[in-house]
Structure to design on (477 residues):
């Protein structure tokens, strides 16, 4: 390594950081934090939890071309100066190795104005399919204080595709069309 | 204080972590950095039929197409890397990825074109193709976006910051920080590779791809990085991003191609149950480490 440039420090011995599970997890923000981030001007967020009928669920799945695992969706109506200003929709998606909680901000016309990740975790896969494992993160989602680790991990190594989030946002837009859109 | 946020852009998660004494300034700087990434996504996205790149793909065979400053810069860099590597980096191999279903098929584009970067004719802020081509900047645009976002954070006067777009990462700061990469066979396990203070690293690997690897040898079309990963450390992330593809395709020519950029490559591979780490700089390839794989 005689030509190592000054900005790079390669340790003499590369010590493998032995597997721990979950291998990588970040809690970015709480539900409340995401609401403030996506709608800084809002005066209030009114809980508006959805429970879709079977017919509505079918329409959402047809329009979005993705499955809706649960008919329930946590949603808040956003008010600015007492007037409807949009929707804050909480959603979660999971793939083979990752479980992601994120929020979609819709403006009053139903267009996406932002997406923020609340919680991201990777694991070996098996536990992601276990509803009890996933449920343990609901506490964090709904506003328990999060603390950011001092050790912000720098992980290079491609690339969990965010295909599931794209599908999730499509589903959220279909839910808006079917169940939230004001006549 | 430190803030960390993530948003989905560029087909991956873009994660920004930054520190500054003042929370308001920090938050505003991160907002601006994400806005910069979003703007680059809108210009260079292959998946979006309305992106500026898609307009180039539809129209540059017929006539000169004007380019925004960002797209002009990235196309110029892509052509330079293609030239320097004699095509080991090639932004025109998109038809192979369309054929395998890894990229979408857009109407009005040359979805079956033969790759040939030499058919890209760049003239400052305009471009045309001298034969039908389909360009994809997936091998370089993420690195460019990371650099652009980090520049926003640097200009805001923050103490330290890091931008990571699905493994293409760059940082600056007052101290060095460890960089980890995924185990080639067990991608949720991390291995510490190096420490980085000011600079960038990008990793190309086939993991998380079901079936075909997204990396192809531009000469032969052969899939690369099925069982190994290539990380390149370079002063900026666009260079690191492009060089990973070149080192993966042409390992024997890597020393000569890395040297002009003061870059260094690290290859993690599992062969015969042994995890091997080799490094490459201007002087050649060197074995650093191997150990029986768990």
């Amino acid at each position: 390594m005689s030509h190592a440039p000054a900005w790079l420090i390669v340790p003499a011995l590369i010590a493998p950081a032995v597997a721990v599970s979950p291998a990588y997890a970040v809690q970015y923000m709480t539900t409340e934090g995401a609401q403030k981030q996506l709608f800084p001007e809002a005066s209030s967020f009114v809980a508006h939890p959805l429970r879709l009928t079977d017919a509505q669920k079918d329409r959402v799945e047809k329009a979005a071309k993705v499955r809706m695992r649960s008919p329930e969706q946590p949603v808040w109506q956003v008010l600015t100066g007492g007037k409807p200003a949009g929707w804050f929709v909480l959603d979660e998606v999971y793939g083979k190795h990752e479980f992601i909680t994120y929020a979609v901000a819709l403006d009053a016309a139903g267009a996406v104005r932002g997406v923020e990740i609340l919680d991201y975790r990777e694991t070996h896969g098996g536990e992601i399919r276990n509803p009890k494992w996933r449920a343990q993160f609901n506490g964090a989602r709904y506003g328990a204080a999060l603390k950011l680790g001092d050790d912000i991990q720098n992980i290079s190594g491609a690339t969990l595709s965010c295909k599931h989030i794209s599908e999730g946002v499509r589903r959220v837009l279909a839910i808006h069309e079917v169940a939230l859109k004001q006549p | 204080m430190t803030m960390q946020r993530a948003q989905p852009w560029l087909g991956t998660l873009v994660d920004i972590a930054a520190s500054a004494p003042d929370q308001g300034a920090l938050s505003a700087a991160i907002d601006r950095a994400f806005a910069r990434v979003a703007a680059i996504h809108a210009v260079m996205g292959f998946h979006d039929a309305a992106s500026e790149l898609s307009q180039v793909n539809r129209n540059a065979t017929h006539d000169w197409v004007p380019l925004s400053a960002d797209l002009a810069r990235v196309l110029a860099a892509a052509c330079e890397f293609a030239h320097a590597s004699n095509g080991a980096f090639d932004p025109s191999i998109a038809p192979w990825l369309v054929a395998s279903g890894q990229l979408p098929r857009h109407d009005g584009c040359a979805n079956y074109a033969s790759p040939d970067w030499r058919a890209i004719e760049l003239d400052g802020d305009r471009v045309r193709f001298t034969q039908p081509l389909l360009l994809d900047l997936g091998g370089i645009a993420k690195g460019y976006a990371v650099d652009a976002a980090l520049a926003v954070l640097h200009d805001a006067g923050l103490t330290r910051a890091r931008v990571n777009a699905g493994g293409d990462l760059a940082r600056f700061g007052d101290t060095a920080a460890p960089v980890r990469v995924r185990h080639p066979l067990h991608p949720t396990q991390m291995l510490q590779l190096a420490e980085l203070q000011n600079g960038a690293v990008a990793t190309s690997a086939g993991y998380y791809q079901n079936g075909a690897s997204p990396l192809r040898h531009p000469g032969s079309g052969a899939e690369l990085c099925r069982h190994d990963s290539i990380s390149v450390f370079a002063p900026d992330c666009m260079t690191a991003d492009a060089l990973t593809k070149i080192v993966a395709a042409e390992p024997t020519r890597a020393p000569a191609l890395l040297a002009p950029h003061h870059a260094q490559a690290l290859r993690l591979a599992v062969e015969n149950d042994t995890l091997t780490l080799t490094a490459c700089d201007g002087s050649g390839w060197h074995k650093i480490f191997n150990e029986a794989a768990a």
Notes: Residues 11-22, 139-150 of chain A have pLDDT under 50 and may be disordered. The CA atoms of residues 110 and 176 of chain A lie 7 Å apart. The beta strands of chain A are 8-9, 24-27, 44-47, 50-51, 72-73, 75-80, 83-94, 98-107, 112-122, 154-156. The longest helix of chain A spans residues 163-180.
